[in-house]
Amino acid sequence: MSKTIRLTMAQALTRFLARQMTEIDGKTLPLFGGVWAIFGHGNVAGIGEALYQVREGLPTYRAHNEQGMAHAAIAYAKANFRRRMMAVTTSIGPGATNLTTAAALAHVNRLPLLLLPGDVFANRIPDPVLQQVEDFSDGTVSANDCLRPVSCYFDRITRPEQIVPALSRAMQVLTDPAECGPVTLALCQDVQAEAYDYPESFFDERLWRPRRPQPDASELDAAVAALKGSTKPVIIAGGGVLYSEATATLKAFAEKHGIPVMETNAGKSSLPHDHPLNMGSVGVTGSSASNLLAEQADVVLAVGSRLQDFTTGSWALFKADGVKIVGLNAQAFDAGKHRALPLVADAKAGLEALEARLNDWKSPTAWVATAKAAKTDWLAAAKAVTDPTNALPSDAQVIGAVHRARGSKATLVCASGGLPGELHKLWPAGAPGSYHMEYGYSTMGYEIAGGLGVKLARPDDDVIVMLGDGSYMMMNSEIATSVMLGRKLTIVVLDNRGFGCINRLQMATGGANFNNLLKDAKHEVLPEIDFAAHAASMGATARKVASIAELERALKEAEADTKTSVIVIDTDPLISTEAGGHWWDVAVPEVSSRKEVNAARKDYEQKRKMQHLVN
């Protein structure tokens, strides 16, 4: 008979997590970099006590907001290219439901996240307990059920032995290149404390290596034929290139076959910004170089991309007759989008398989020349908008200042508002992973917590967080956590006094300025929010600057700071970069009393004629 050890369910869970390992650059490391925890009555006595027992091998981190904890955990996994991850535990009730937004973020971005919320009593004797949500027609429902649709795997642990198969399934999902996403194990609070005789073998150390699925022969034949028949091919590099660690393979592939590369927000930094075949961002927030080539392309090799609407210009970007998309993706759902030729495989393995079959095939010299000329034009346009002026600074001018002060070696973190579009176009990314943008779910409030997760994953990186005042107001508490943990961030807050990005979209669709900028919202008094003083109150070094020149000086001074620095600058809410870009489908009302809306609707109907399903 196999040997057993008597542990509570929570003790078995934490001991198991501490024994899961990964291998990076020849070194064996714990797969889980730690557990984020805010304790409450649903987890303090069970998993809280269990985490204390393993605190040396599986560190526990405390934050100030459950959603912020999960954002930090997601950023940690993203910065590690999904090779390492973190878990998050909360109490029942609001602590658990605060995880929903973060779970959706991880789901959309295909990132591993283990959620361990406390749950109601499995024995139901004390029902209804504090914070319990009761369904009057279903006794099995709890608030944690709201996590079901945003989890790639969900389970509720109602008996201590159930944790054994549940963790086995959880690990398969968290480490699978196609299924990867958030896992929720809802832990009934009485079951956390119940003991069971677990097999000792359950706690054996296990090494998880990334799976690299190879392409199907017939799919590979079709993809090779499409590329060999093309005269104007392009590559779209998505996040899968980074997660597959395929950047060097992509570079060699593009160079050998003369194929221009354009990057999604998730895939930016797949090639260095100064590589001659890197055309920069693509789509709605694309460079003029990328979008010019995308409109002419006859074959689009989409590598590791979900092909969301910002990438495809709401499926109006690819205009050539008979254009074909080859979807190289580990997830079949993504590989076959819009009738693409699917090539279901790991990004690195798929590129290597294509390379072996393409031999010496190259795209026409004239196509490469067109690409390089387009990039030269784009770089001139980008420089023009990022250079400083004497006006109230634009987002682009702030981006230019940050880059001049800290350079492409910095790791840039952002998520929402107008900045993602400007950064996607204008930030010159260096090494793989140095551009950390959460734009799959575009979550306001991710930025600072995400920056902390990146710093935990990459402690030697110069991590710079850029965000607007709107995102700062939504979630800023993890500034205090970064100070507490000694993880220095440089945070640049662009204060345009409201939601400037959506205000511009409102205006573009014919709407009146309403409820976005503070001055256009219902108010008695307009608040004068002192973001620098607020950040200082949480322990950060804080500066308010009045110009681009002052910003550059402050950024250089902040390099010498020993703790998190927050730099605040006022910006213009109405200016955005006109160069590049593409139409985006945002529905405009068919009927309105405003002539501006009616005009916008007329223009909208014309633009919709550009949309098509690729066939």
Beta content: 15-25%
Quote the average pLDDT.
Answer: 96
- Tell me the number of structural domains: 3
Task: Give, in spatial order, the strands making up the sheet with the most strands.
Answer: 5-4-6-7-9-8
Please write the CATH class name of the largest domain. Alpha Beta
Q: Total number of β-strand segments? A: 23
End-to-end Cα distance, whole Å, is 60 Å
- Under CATH, the topology of the largest domain can be stated as Rossmann fold
Structural class: alpha/beta
What percent of the residues sit in helical stretches (DSSP H or I)? Answer: 25-40%
CATH-defined architecture of the largest domain: 3-Layer(aba) Sandwich
Q: Tell me the overall shape.
A: globular
Quick recap of the structure?
Helices cover about 35% and strands about 20% of the residues. By secondary structure, the protein is of the alpha/beta class. Keywords: Hydrolase, Thiamine pyrophosphate.
